[in-house]
Design a protein that fits this description.
single chain; alpha/beta; seven-stranded parallel sheet; 7 helices; about 45% helix; globular
Length: about 240
């Protein structure tokens, strides 16, 4: 039996990319998956795919900018499976641009999704983890916060805020809860779809060396499968060709 089998794992941003890959991998290894994202048709199809392969999955439409949606995701895990072992806060947007462009609405959306969405997840899951006496937060951040470059200042700022909050949470968590931060580099996802066309061209070029989402999913699985008392705090996973 692996350290994943039988665990109940809720995942935000589960309808595509890293979230989808993580759901499939963990389900294959015996976890019960609770899927959350804004596209219900994608969630329904993914849950069906997991079940057809012999796994277990539930889903609920989840907009991480709405605190009640995170409460609903955690509540579904408890109602369906009686507990929640892991919350993977993976939902994120990267609306990168020059600060001179003053795309303030994009800045606000990144703060709402990338930062407040993680905080709402903590607010929903932390009381449950305390009551159970166990639990694991896995927060997806980015290598953009490790190497600051033009166009990504606000995006990197939201990710580094999550990195800081996660470290504070780890220190407050005590010996019964775990906190992991995963920092992916370039990954083949739909990350660039809503960017300015000029910026999107740069990101698309980076995608030529990008990782498959499966690589990040394996890193997340590694953290989750560790035995009780072992906290994998920080994982960086990026292409060898990435500068």
């Amino acid at each position: 039996m692996s350290g994943i089998e039988g665990k109940v794992v809720a995942i935000t941003g589960a309808s595509s990319g890293i979230g989808e890959a993580t759901a499939l991998l963990l389900a294959e290894r015996g976890a019960k998956i609770v899927l959350g994202a804004r596209r219900p048709e994608r969630l329904e199809a993914l849950a069906a795919r997991i079940e057809q392969a012999g796994g277990e999955a539930a889903w609920v439409r989840t907009d991480v900018t709405r605190r009640e949606d995170l409460s609903g995701l955690v509540g579904l895990a408890r109602d369906r499976y009686g507990k929640l072992d892991v919350l993977v806060s993976n939902a994120g947007v990267g609306l990168i641009s020059r600060l001179d462009d003053l795309r303030v609405e994009d800045w606000e959306e990144m703060i709402d999704v990338n930062l407040k969405g993680v905080l709402y997840g903590i607010a929903a899951a932390l009381p449950v983890f305390r009551e159970q006496g166990f639990g694991h937060f896995v927060n997806t951040v980015s290598t953009a916060g490790l190497r600051i470059v033009p166009l990504q200042s606000v995006y990197a700022g939201t990710k580094n805020a999550v990195r800081t909050i996660s470290e504070g949470l780890r220190q407050e968590a005590g010996d019964s809860l775990r906190v992991t931060v995963v920092s992916p580099g370039a990954v083949r996802t739909d990350f660039a779809e809503r960017m300015d066309p000029a910026v999107k061209g740069q990101i698309d070029k980076m995608m030529e060396v990008a990782l498959s989402p499966d690589a990040v999913a394996r890193a997340i699985a590694f953290a989750i499968e560790q035995p009780d008392g072992v906290d994998v705090g920080d994982i960086v996973v990026r292409p060898t060709a990435q500068g």
